[in-house]
Amino acid sequence: MSDFHDALHRAAQPHGEAVGKDLTADAVVASSVRSVSEGRRRRAAMQAVASVAAVGAVVAGAWLVLPLGAGDQEPAGADPVHAGPFRYEVGDDPDAVPVEEPALLLRGEDAVMCGDELSLEPGVSVHSDEAFGRGLSLAAELKTLGDIMEGTPPATPQPLFSDMPDGPTDGWDPASPQWEVVASGALRTHTVSTLLLDGSTVVGLQESLSGSGQEEGIAHYGGGSGIPAEGQCGDVETREDLVELWDRGPGDPFTSVLVAQFWGGDAAGSTLLATIVIDPNEPANTDQEPTAVFDQPAPAELEAPDGAMHQSFIVPRPIAGCAPLAELREGGTPTVDMEGPPVEVPGAMGDLSGELWGAEPVLTVPAGDEPWFVERDAWLVADIVSAGIEDPHLDWTSLSSAQAWALALGGEDPLRDPECVYALPIPEVFGAVFLVVDGVAPEVEANWGDATVLPEEMQTWIYLGQAE
Amino acid sequence: MPDVEQVIAEVYREAGSRLAAYGYVLTGSRHGAEELVQAAVVKTFVKRRRLHDARSAEGYIRATMRTLHVDAIRRDRIWARLVPRVAPRTHAEHAGDVEDHDEISRALAALPPRVRTAVALRFYDDLTVADIAHVMRLSDGTVKKYLQEGRERLAPLLGVSVTEPERLPVVERRQR
Q1: Taking the model in full, what pTM does it have?
Q2: Nearest-CA distance from B151 to chain A in Å?
Q3: A313 CB contacts (<8 Å, ≥6 apart)?
Q4: Interval B95-113 mean pLDDT
Q5: Which chain A residue lies closest to B122 (C-alpha atoms)?
Q6: What's the complex ipTM?
Q7: Around A144, how many Cα atoms within 13 Å sit in the side-chain half-sphere?
Q8: Does residue B175 belong to any structural domain of this protein?
Q9: pLDDT tens track for A269-311
Q10: Is the model more confident about A357 or about B66?
């Protein structure tokens, strides 16, 4: 292999050794797996979930692909449950919500325990002025786990104990009740727990989701939260304890509450920002599923041009490739969230048909009436391109004799990887056709409110219509 | 038959630093590497309890690390697109909390996640461009571009030539 290969391995080696040393000393993972395999330490199984949940926090929802969770101990056969969806958030206005002491803590020496008496109201309570403007929110929906995991390959839970084929299993139970949870915000750390209540007394508790965030930007952390059994209050050390919890089954989800707490600050000291409580007995307060934040927006509904005015979309410029724009279109671009202001395309536009233009100009613009995108890199993108380059580059030519600009196939394509196989651009196109121009209109740039993405990194997709 | 815990201890002892180094190149941070290895070990051993030695387990764990990480990137890109007005511009999942160890660490952390991942899959997993494209659901051309970008940014720090020929297998462009 190459020097680069060897050099990269050498560079990573000391980091690997440093981390590897910690791994050797880390008993959490080993004991977590052992607990799942042997069923001796139920609590360690929870830590296994937490361990993956820590990465789940980073990957924002990895749990959806993992057969994990507190449903491990629940026997099958429970009735389907449903409540919500719910969504609560801490807003931007410091005057809207009073700052108050927390009714409970989910972490630390004074963390909530079974037997504690609590009075919890559903909704948001704020504990620091720093909580505002961070987009802190908790979205959740109570479902039967099998409904949450619908569409994924079903897991087959295996008995933890060979002598108890109907006993505790090592996998989730599709019939168990679960909270589907997404916590969001610009935060340092967060914890989500489910508390089982008998009146105001905590009779079961389970931490389900925790992780670290990034205070400089909002992120979303997805996961599942099971319903603890009555008496499930912490470590489960023995097989007998685990079997007893299994036999008892999960608590009544409608006597449970879901609680999230958010912390800000740094390593030197963290600040409890806010608590959000969700009660499944409350009516749903949103119609959006918690995990909707992870869904790709729907493709935009295209509108036929109105004379010279054309629907437009602001789309990030892709990295060069063999057909980067065509790949974007194939992937559903543009989406509803990308729509920009209408763009005027003056001059004479070629007719849209299956045999599109060839060497003829796509567009001829009279001098003195040039749109903002004259002389910028431009491409043609269509739903279906029968042959040749799938997203051909267009070139501007000054027609001095006619005092006009013509846009036709040609020019050097900065988005085309030189290693790609060259194919003559003689396409027949069908479906939606877009003129893609590099950059955005001056009025769009002037009103650009996004500090995280620059207008120079964007392109404007102008919808020309349907080719048949 | 060895105890699961014994096998995991053996994995950590025999392969821990290799797995962590792989996780480090994937994520760009020690913290990210540690979390990724731990998550992959849990997932691997919960799913495959018949792994009896470190050698057989290491491959499964690496594959699980790859899957978890690529999935992380994909989901992260989705949310970054959903909230482009609030997301940090250089948001880079695990690399966000990178430790400032050395120049190469900083360069790795600064790589776009997909570029870093492509480099790790090529130069740590020895995957072909076509395999990387399949794993990351990208075109071959895009993968090549990412690998080139990774080489250009890392090679000077690694003390090797950017222009050193990379002995990639010849891969036909897949038909779309």
Answers
A1: 0.45
A2: 8
A3: A300, A333, A334, A338, A339, A340, A460, A461, A463
A4: 65
A5: A5
A6: 0.75
A7: 13
A8: no
A9: 678 999 999 999 988 898 888 877 766 677 889 999 998 899 9
A10: B66
Give mean pLDDT, residues A237-245.
Answer: 71
**Which residue of chain A has the CA closest to B141?**
A321
Number of domains in chain B: 1
pLDDT for the residue A152: 44
Q: How many Cβ atoms sit within 10 Å of the Cβ of residue B2? A: 12
Q: CB count, 10 Å around CB of A411?
A: 16
Q: What angle do CA A404, A405, A409 make, to 5 degrees?
A: 145
Give chain B positions within 8 Å (CB) of A293. Answer: 79, 82-83
> pLDDT by residue (tens digit) across A89-136?
998 888 888 899 999 988 877 888 888 888 888 999 999 988 898 889
User: In whole angstroms, what is the distance from residue B84 CA to residue A449 CA?
Assistant: 11
Sheet holding A137-144, edge to edge: A82-89, A137-144, A177-185, A219-226
CA distances from B153 to A328, A453, B111, B119 (A): 26, 22, 8, 11
Q: Which of B34, B84, B87 sits opposite A22 (nearest CB)?
A: B34
Which residues are bridge partners to A193 per DSSP? A207, A259
- The contacts found for A7-12 with CB under 8 angstroms, 24 or more apart, are A7/B155, A7/B158, A7/B159, A7/B160, A8/B25, A8/B119, A8/B123, A8/B124, A8/B154, A8/B158, A9/B21, A9/B123, A9/B124, A10/B158, A11/B104, A11/B157, A11/B158, A12/B21, A12/B22, A12/B24, A12/B25, A12/B124
What are the chain B neighbours of A2 within 8 Å (beta carbons)?
160, 164-167
CB contact at 8 A, B74 and B68: no
Chain-centre distance for alpha carbon A420: 32
Chain segment B119-129, per-residue pLDDT in tens: 888 888 778 88
Q: For position B51, which CATH number holds?
A: 1.20.140
Tell me which residue range forms the domain holding B84: 4-158
Assigned domain for B164 exists: no
Q: Strand order of the sheet with strand A123-126?
A: A123-126, A269-278, A256-266, A189-198, A201-212
Query: Quick check: is B89 in a domain?
Result: yes
Task: Select the residue of B17, B37, B88 nearest A452 (Cβ to Cβ).
Answer: B88
Lowest mean pLDDT among A245-254, A262-271, A276-285, A371-380: A262-271
